[in-house]
Amino acid sequence: MYSGGGFSKWEIGDIDVFIHNGKYHLFHLIIPNHDYIAHATSEDGINWKRNKNALFVGHPGEWDDDMLWTMHVSQEQDYFVMYYTGLKREDQGDIQKIGKAKSSDLIHWEKDTSFEPIGSDAPYYECSETNNPRQWLSFRDPFLFRDNDKTHLLICARGPEGFVSRRGCIGLATLEDQTFKLKKQLFSPMVYDDVECPCAFTINGIYYLIGSIREDLKIRYWFSDKFKGTYASFNSNVLLPKGNYAGRVVKDGDHLLVYAFYFAGKSVDTFRIITPPKEIVADEKGRLKLKSFYRWEEKVTKIIPQTGFNKTEALLGNPTSVIIETLEERIVSTKSGYELFGCKNPFRNFIWEGELHLYNLGKCGLVFNSDENGNGYYISFDYLNGFVQIRQWGHNDQDIANNFIFKNLQINQFERSENKSVTFSLIAYGTYIELSINGIVRLTLVDSLFQGGYIGIYCSSGKAGLTNSYLKKLAEPETEYGIKQEQH
């Protein structure tokens, strides 16, 4: 977990992660000033510590003397290269260009003054002279990608034609004779203002592009059988659900990881936290899925099986509630109304795994970080339609006219089964929350409103059963600022 501590509380900008000799290197912007690129390192890919800052804005008159924007780090032979975005004061922030820096150790960086900065230009992209309808040019967020013997830069750019707010594309510059030359745009979805932080990678011979979309604050993806082929999308092409942004991919041995930061307030000017990565995999149809980070198990310090859980209580006192506990299963139900069947959780940071079964046509879901009055986080499973949603639900003592908290935080789809059963894994680590259903990450977010000591199952005219469940204690987060919120 990693977040900023600046006055604005949202100083974390776009990110990039590079792994070298088993150490994770994080580079990120500092906003709103954009005056330097920060650097942090991690031994586990989750907890980070700041290091020497990587780059600063140029001196007056230099091409990057105003702001520094998104970067990407790669290795070339025995040294490292950072392609980064720069802005010049003379241009008043209207023109973005791509520059280059070098390092021998990932700590000390020097700008490559022999590299001519790359900018947006005709005929493939908007240009300042003849085609600039917004009065500023998008040309940023470089990502270096090698395809066979070719080296390319993917760039957040805009095509020269089309309706103004739909020109966003993934631009392309290819290295030829030691110079990057602009090529025809790699992909244009023809629907977004910009496709930010583009990345490319391959899985099983299929090329994938991902991009962060400002319109809905989601990370989306597209696929093709060729790098310069026609990119298509599935009926659902969301890689990371709403609130996750600036996604960047990196190889970690045999694992392909995606890092992103989370907008704690669902808008660009709210608190941001860089969350633990997820692993990208593809199913038999080529659709991308996310799996939980493989290193979570390294943080487990204790495991309690379901038979060792604390006693289940009907916290709300519903007179129609029933609790049946056996060695194999905990069955809870209500004939009428709502009930929270909770037990005390001995762990603050945990992984809760198990199978949740719905035995009728009622409602059920998970509850965690709840107090004895039911103020906590509720995860609802719509077994019939395949939707999962997490919400804050509790009491608001600050407003007697609206004395409740009921806020939907995130929603996603999952593949439903006819037997109305899911295998789940819930991670609560500091303020980070992650839910996997049947091995696939469906919810990933940050929130700190509730920190009560109960976990359990809720039912509404439902009958549910918990089987094969375990509670795993996680080591405490090493570094975390958290979110300044009143806790309940």
Descriptive terms for the model:
Jelly Rolls, 488 residues, mainly beta, seven-stranded antiparallel β-sheet, Tachylectin-2, Chain A, eight-stranded antiparallel β-sheet, disordered C terminus, elongated
In brief, what are we looking at here?
With 488 residues, the protein is mostly beta strands.
How would you characterize the overall build of this protein?
The C terminus is likely disordered. A hairpin with an 8-residue loop joins strand 33 and strand 34. Strands 25, 27, 28, 30, 35, 36, 37 and 39 form an eight-stranded antiparallel sheet that branches. By secondary structure, the chain is mainly beta. The radius of gyration is 24 Å and the shape is elongated. The relative contact order is 0.11. The two termini are 22 Å apart. 0% of the residues lie in helices and 54% in strands. It has two domains: 291 residues, Tachylectin-2, Chain A; 177 residues, Jelly Rolls (Sandwich), CATH 2.60.120.
